[in-house]
Design a protein that fits this description.
- Helix content is 55%, strand content 3%.
- It has 17 helices and 2 strands.
- It starts with 15 loop residues before the first helix and ends in a 13-residue tail after the last helix.
- It has a two-stranded antiparallel sheet.
- With 359 residues, it is mostly helical.
């Protein structure tokens, strides 16, 4: 199902800290320029992972960000639309050991300017509130219902029984923010745990390692143990990446980061690859089958003959799937005791309008 490519390079990065420092250098100066908004996104992500996992930085590892940190106030003033990226970068750099205390002043400025109030999304407001709270500032003091709205969205489990990646990623980030990336108990309810299990079942059937990594992280942040089947599959996917000096940056860097973050949180190591120099790209050898697509097509093609009862449907469904899709479906069913409830939503039965009555 996958191809493992060995890197034929000298292995000089003998510690995890050395490999993480090499990754920082790659993202800071080896892929994009600082004028590119995707530079902000990529570097905010890698620094957030290192900060939230309590990474120990090698001496001088953050020097590649020195010039950026020096003029971050000017960047914030001219690019306030990117304030969440910029504030996140500043706070993580300081908390990882960069000398300076600019984060408190930037958080205060963000609150004074009312930037979080310009957000349309509760999720973005929650991120802004969490970032400012890291320096003791609440930029939304009058919004007492923000957490309640996020929890209400997360607890609507039926949303996550249907393929909807945007909703699933928002679910994981709600848990990220409520838990402060695993620093405190987010106190999720049983319905939100069900939401995570439904979203994870879909991600597993879709062979979506990026999303499934975030879901397993969310479960662990909430004090839950993810299904073993999911975690075994994720650890296998880490070995399907090649890191190479190549052109083209529409790559799988985010999936690589999420998988290794999951590995770190699950006690499975993570960030074990040698990091070559140059214009590094992250390429993953992907599975060729698509179990979720097959399953969706099978259910839809049944029309009025489909049922929401998984026990009644199992035989007919499995008989129409490829061997690999069948294997994935069996593994997904075995990974949770809620598969029947998941399938009830996934089958989408009972939504058809009543047929008109003829006179």
């Amino acid at each position: 199902m996958t191809t493992i490519v060995q890197l034929n390079v000298p292995f000089r990065q003998h510690s995890k800290a050395a490999r993480q420092s090499a990754l920082l250098k790659t993202f800071a100066s080896g892929r994009r320029t600082q004028e590119d908004v995707f530079w902000l996104k990529e570097n905010a992500e890698i620094l957030n992972i290192l900060e939230s996992t309590g990474a120990e930085m090698m001496p001088g590892a953050l020097d590649v960000y020195a010039a950026f940190y020096d003029d971050i106030e000017q960047r914030m003033e001219f690019f306030p639309q990117y304030y969440r990226f910029l504030l996140s970068l500043c706070l993580d750099l300081e908390d990882l050991g960069m000398p300076g205390t600019k984060g408190a002043a930037l958080a205060e400025w963000v609150a004074q300017q009312g930037l979080p109030e310009a957000e349309l999304s509760d999720l973005q407001r929650a991120e802004a509130r969490r970032l400012c709270a890291r320096r003791g500032i609440d930029p939304l003091p009058d919004d007492d219902g923000l957490d309640a709205r996020l929890r209400r969205f997360a607890a609507r489990s039926q949303t996550f029984a249907l393929p909807n990646k945007k909703a699933a990623y928002e679910l994981t980030h709600i848990v990220f923010y409520l838990s402060e990336y695993g620093r405190k108990d987010p106190a999720i309810c049983a319905a939100t745990r069900t939401s995570l299990m439904f979203a994870g079942t879909l991600a597993f059937l879709d062979f979506n390692a990026d999303l499934l990594s975030e879901i397993c992280l969310s479960l662990r942040f909430a004090g839950q143990v993810p299904p073993q089947v999911w975690e075994i599959w994720l650890t296998q996917q880490v070995r399907t990446f090649t890191l190479d000096d190549a052109d083209g940056l529409a790559d799988d860097y985010h999936e690589y980061l999420m998988l290794n973050w999951f590995m770190s949180r699950a006690g499975q190591g993570g960030f074990g690859d040698h990091v070559p120099g140059g214009r590094l790209t992250f390429a993953r050898t992907r599975p060729t089958s698509a179990p979720l697509r097959e399953l969706s097509h099978c259910i839809y093609s049944m029309g009025a003959g489909r049922s929401a009862d998984w026990e009644a449907m199992r035989g007919d469904v499995c008989s129409q799937l490829s061997d690999e899709a069948q294997a994935a479906l069996i593994a997904a069913e075995a990974s949770t005791d809620q598969f029947g409830a998941f399938f009830e939503g996934f089958a989408r039965v009972g939504l058809r309008p009543a047929m008109p009555v003829r006179a």
